[in-house]
Specification:
about 20% helix, about 210 residues, 3-stranded antiparallel beta sheet
Length: about 210
């Protein structure tokens, strides 16, 4: 367990567990979808445990999935990653990123690894390699219903006839990107938060495996 200072006015420290029992204290009174296209807005009412008051939250989701996957591709020979540069309509900018996409029941049977393999092939034109799950079902954001899993794939190979990208995607594949260049793009704000999280988790795993120091 991690430990945090203070808390509750005790002046000491309290333990932090990933199995947080406090989750059960927040009761969902009701919820309804108030907007639905590709994205959804879910209005959820929660009874707050400390005050007993009912509070409304507007939560962003996706119509056909509650899970997404990120894939960081690493080449042990060159000690570099294959990244992408993609147009992102929210910030209306072309930003750095890694292969990513939804885990869709109709395509992937809710299997994040299968979805990751598809996204890596579509967006980076890579297949195979040795796969490591480095983070599973991590909440995407305070006000999002999406959960994210992150994979590191080591030494994938070029796909001969890769799956096509989605029509709305504008992606440039960039192999040979160093860790130093990835970290620089993060500090310069040239990657979104989700992609940055995936990179940092994968880099941590690379160090654990002795593949990067």
């Amino acid at each position: 367990n991690l430990r945090t200072r203070g808390g509750g006015g005790s002046g000491g420290s309290q333990s932090y567990s990933s199995n947080n029992r406090d989750d059960d204290k927040f009761k969902i009174v009701d919820e309804q979808i108030v907007y639905q296209n590709f994205r959804t807005i879910l209005q959820r009412r929660i009874r707050m445990p400390k005050t007993g008051k009912i509070v409304n939250f507007d939560l962003v989701g996706v119509k056909n999935s509650e899970m997404a996957v990120l894939v960081f591709a690493w080449d042990t020979r060159t000690k570099t990653a294959t990244m992408i540069r993609e147009y992102m309509p929210g910030p209306n900018r072309v930003l750095w990123g890694i292969a990513a996409g939804l885990v869709e029941p109709s395509k992937h049977e809710d299997d994040a690894r299968v979805a990751g393999e598809h996204e890596l092939e579509e967006e980076c034109h890579l297949i195979g390699g040795e796969w490591y799950l480095v983070s599973e079902n991590c909440a995407m954001d305070k006000y999002a219903t999406m959960n994210i899993s992150v994979y590191l794939v080591v030494d994938p190979v070029q796909a001969v006839d890769p799956k096509p990208m989605d029509e709305e995607e504008d992606i440039e594949i960039v192999p040979g990107v160093t860790i130093e260049e990835i970290m620089l793009s993060l500090t310069r704000g040239e990657m979104n938060v989700v992609g940055g999280f995936g990179c940092l988790m994968a880099i941590t795993k690379l160090r654990e495996l002795g593949l990067y120091s």
